[in-house]
Design goal:
about 15% helix; 2 domains; single chain; mainly beta
């Protein structure tokens, strides 16, 4: 009976997805061809994430009756670059045979997904190309499914704070913005009921993976391979006990990312982070952080921005 209740609780958590789902279509082809540069974007105080309920990228073959030329004036043939009333997946039975008028395939190529997640996750927008170089040219259009997450609900693991949020929040850590050295800190998460812990995106090299732990009930839920660990959007575990995220003398590489979602149903999640001690932040020497120059509404949101940082940024904008 207890197992049945836990299963029902987990299903309810999946149903109550607290984010805004988005879908875009685009032409499939080499990166230098017209219409194969696709932009994912979210609104103010939102960043891009990928859901744990389905694959983020699907590639399609068009029905054989539709011609899809690449146009020299860089305009797309709409019927060829998206799924619509004419260009849909159909199955028809005729004399015992099944005819597929369109086929689709989720993209599972690891190198392409790492590139996609590195480029787009926790960003207000990104521009990407289809996986032509990885998978070849036998497809016609591509679909990207993603979610927009409130930036105000993403908290940096290295900061010191104690707070609570209802239903869901995210903890984030990255070596992308700066070189952070010798980080030692922890966050403790508690709730009155079950808390679902999911990977929004985890990509850690071996040295960082050995020094970062997610613990509950004396179990660790990050299991390193010889190359570290890479997890896309997936559920890690469900716990009704306290959870801790621990960094022990971590000096991350630039592409190291730990981004996890904490979710409970209709209750508060309590978080207490000690703040990292004995660390030194060194600006990346060759790859400066760049933000869109066309709009002042985009703030740097690789992790939550403290009030003082916002004031400094506003002064700079003036």
């Amino acid at each position: 009976m207890r197992n049945i209740i836990s299963l029902v609780t987990l299903l309810l958590m999946f149903a109550a997805k607290p984010t805004d789902s988005q879908t875009i279509y685009g032409c499939y082809g080499p990166p230098d061809k017209p219409c194969t540069q696709h932009t994912l974007s979210c609104g103010d105080d939102e960043v891009i994430g990928f859901d744990d309920n389905y694959g983020p990228v699907t590639i399609f073959n068009k029905p054989s009756t539709i011609d899809c030329p690449f146009l020299p004036d860089k305009k797309c043939v709409d019927i060829c670059c998206r799924q619509n009333a004419v260009n849909v997946t159909k199955r028809e039975h005729h004399r015992g045979q099944v005819f597929n008028y369109q086929s689709n395939e989720p993209v599972n190529n690891s190198s392409y997904l790492v590139s996609l997640f590195n480029n787009c996750t926790n960003q207000p927008y990104c521009t990407i190309s289809p996986p032509f170089n990885e998978l070849g040219g036998e497809y016609d259009f591509v679909r990207y499914d993603y979610i927009c997450i409130q930036g105000s609900r993403i908290y940096n693991v290295v900061d010191k704070y104690t707070f609570r949020k209802r239903n869901f929040l995210y903890l984030y850590f990255s070596g992308k913005s700066n070189y952070l050295r010798n980080l030692t800190c922890s966050c403790v998460i508690k709730g009155r009921g079950n808390i679902r812990i999911a990977s929004t995106y985890i990509n850690l090299g071996l040295e960082s993976c050995k020094r970062i732990k997610i613990l509950s009930q004396n179990q660790s839920f990050l299991h390193c391979t010889d190359d570290g660990i890479t997890k896309f959007a997936e559920v890690l575990f469900l716990s009704n006990e306290s959870i801790s995220v621990q960094l022990d003398n971590v000096s991350p590489e630039r592409d190291d990312v730990l981004w996890i979602e904490l979710f409970t149903l209709g209750d508060f999640i309590h978080v207490s982070c000690t703040g990292c001690q004995n660390n030194m932040a060194v600006e990346h020497p060759s790859i400066p952080i760049q933000y869109p120059a066309t709009s002042s509404s985009y703030l740097p949101i690789s992790y939550p921005i403290a009030g003082l940082t916002i004031i400094v940024l506003l002064i700079c904008l003036v």
